[in-house]
Amino acid sequence: MRWIVDGMNVIGTRPDGWWKDRRSAMAGLVERLERWASAEGQRAMVVFEGPTAPPIESAVIEIGHAPRASADSADDEIVRLVRADPRPDEIAVVTSDSGLAERVRDAGAIVQPAAGFRKVIDAF
Q1: 98-106 vs 73-84: helix axis angle to the nearest 10?
Q2: Whole domain around residue 26: which residue ranges?
Q3: Total number of domains in the chain
Q4: Most Cβ neighbours (<10 Å): which of 7, 40, 52, 120?
């Protein structure tokens, strides 16, 4: 299974003040995903609306972003990735966005709820 994570959707599952420093919240999510992916032997990618400055990098997971930051741009990028994959049935998209969930299911992927996934990765 390969995981594609709707980054801001997962971050938004907890009202922990993430909106005060979005970049730190994004970097924290990447760190949790790295620990989880390393410990569990998982392949994962997180997708954000746009690139960060300075860039957030990882040697463990892929970090993607939409070509242009705008409303729903990360959703569109996730759908593009699923549709472009020759084996979408081997992709789990992590999101609680019902519109995105419907679109990726239609493209052949499965969906995992963001809050439950956040609990899993927070344990690492």
Answers
A1: 20
A2: 2-122
A3: 1
A4: 7
